[in-house]
């Protein structure tokens, strides 16, 4: 059986209240917060990027497994849409600083907000084929957004790292699937600093079509239904979409609530659903089942079913990282994100 051996997240300490962004642009804070379902978001420090954030989460994931050396990692995939270099891989920088050595497969992945979960599926396949014993998938982003664009209210920063393998499993991977199409709801051309998006088009034909497509396929493959699961996790571009898709699929508020990190830190793109999964693992008990579907614009979704084991151990939680924060104002936010 293949599954999660270890996991960890890193959330930058910086926070900005959505109300402060709204006031800076003469918008009604209450209306913006109600429309997006987000209270505040995480902000990277001036010296943090997708590499440093990936490294922090990866280091913690490794140290959480007693006796597992860095050299044991034979695959390292880093998914992001904010890789700091157009040519120069994030994955090899992270691998070098982790001390993995040279005998590993490294690759940077891009698929908007599901680049990290694409890495999880690829690594599970390599392990199943006998090509690797342990692999690490990381989702890390310092999400980009143009000032005064609606994305500015939710684009956030975080990283999540997962070690997968056949031994020391804390959550078995029972099933996975993917659902993809050419649906250009969000894009950024080479050389362009900020992404563009199709507004309301990002909802029904993009997010909802793909998340529900992957979810229903997962139900069909496994002959399961929402009541068979203890928790559900969905990609969180804002506070409304995951709640709406959970209701449409038949999940309850109680199944979804533990994963909803978006309310407090916004949307850290590739780290969104992976951090939501970590928040669930933080509180899960042995023998509980987790239903998870990511989403990446362009568009596609990856679906997973996990079942926790008795090896699941308590560690620093996502909630603790969320609560460790320092508020900044809008001008400082612009400085830290290198917009001024």
TrEMBL record:
Record GO terms (molecular function): hydroxymethylglutaryl-CoA synthase activity
Keywords annotated in UniProt: Acyltransferase, Transferase
BP GO annotations: secondary metabolite biosynthetic process
Pfam families found in the cross-reference section: ACP_syn_III_C
InterPro entries from the UniProt entry: ACP_syn_III_C (IPR013747), HMG_CoA_Synthase (IPR004656), Thiolase-like (IPR016039)
Ranges for domain Beta-ketoacyl-[acyl-carrier-protein] synthase III C-terminal: 223-305
SUPFAM superfamilies listed in its UniProt record: Thiolase-like
Metal-binding recorded as keyword: no
The name this protein goes by in its record: Hydroxymethylglutaryl-CoA synthase
